[in-house]
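User: I'm putting together notes for a lab meeting next week and I want to include a structural view of one of the chains we've been expressing. I don't have a solved structure, so I'd like a prediction I can at least talk through. The sequence is below, exactly as it appears in our construct file.
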Amino acid sequence: MTLVIDHIGELVTNDAALGDAVLGIVRDAALVVGDDGRVAWVGARSSAPAADRYVDAAGAAVIPGFVDSHAHLVFAGDRAAEFAARMAGSPYTGGGIRTTVAATRAASDDDLRATVARLHREMLRQGTTTIEIKSGYGLTVADERRSLRIAGEFTDETTYLGAHVIPADADPDDYTALVCGPMLDAAAPYARWIDVFCERGAFDEDRSRAVLTAGIRAGLGARIHANQLTAGGGVRLAVELGAASADHCTHLAPPDIDALAASASGGGPGTVATLLPGAEFSTRSPYPDARALLDAGATVALATDCNPGSSYTSSMPFCIALAVREMRMTPAEALWSATAGGAKALRRADIGHLGVGARADLAILDAPSFLHLAYRPGVPLVRTVLVSGTPSNEISGNRTTSTGTPTNGEAI
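Assistant: Thanks for the context. Below is the predicted structure for the 412-residue chain, given as structure tokens.
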């Protein structure tokens, strides 16, 4: 059955051909969802075609569902004490990852699944309709494989991150060979992407190149944790290998910015700079220079980096507010980066926008404009979430699918 969402005060489509500026805003709008769960029509509500079902947005703003392209949800335990120590002045080094590795290895499948399900529900309630989930807290062949198997129960965007850190008792070269060999063989059937933490104290540039090259040969797309704690070669390695995204980008030199901008203008998909302001908030680190990236022409995405150590937030609206306040992004740039930017970081054309043919993933806000996402930080402004045209409270099981039909009613 088809569905019309009517009486939309401000509809953000991310399709500039449909409305003003980059966000493609249509005012006093309606949107029709086809029986395939995709957007079938967008425009002025006075011209909206009839549909089988009706939803009244009551003059509220409607935005595309958030696309969270960087999250670490398969873990056990927490690191609240580590957070408290950082707030008291201890520096962040990344060493706490090994604490989570020990807890994750000791956890049952059901315990890990319950954590992912809880965080997935949190994200969905806050308007996130697509998530990427990484492994990386197992660091053995069996634990990396099971982490990806569990992640795959919740999303198709699964990332093998066996190269998160080198275990304390492992030789770096031997562990890199394991990551590129038997562990990759076990993980690849459950993963779409491969990632590496290219950083001092984790994987240097040469080992990072070896990991990503092995993953690409195995048919996985490349992503990279780059330039988070120090300046280094991670960003330029990402561009060199055609990675879909370079994530963090906290410490960038001019050549890094130039490389990202050139990749965005080269006619291909380019390498997206995925910024993770929740990590800077939680570690009291300098924020990335989003303004320099945008002004240079780089493509920017925003994501939560949801993880138990350095960014334990599941809220894309919070990250939007941080991006506007701390990284000099405009509200429009931040929203685009949290939706269309995230889609580009996943190399997806079917999400992150509400043009005809897109998957009908959207959020109805308790606000007249998307501006309120940054204007009213910390306020739960997402009233209703639809995934493939289905209200999230009608979705059964772990996965978001296009099955089910919204119920009749004047408003949801």
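A couple of points you could mention at the meeting. The two ends are 17 Å apart (CA to CA). The chain has two domains: 3-65+352-394, 67-345.

User: Perfect, that's what I needed.
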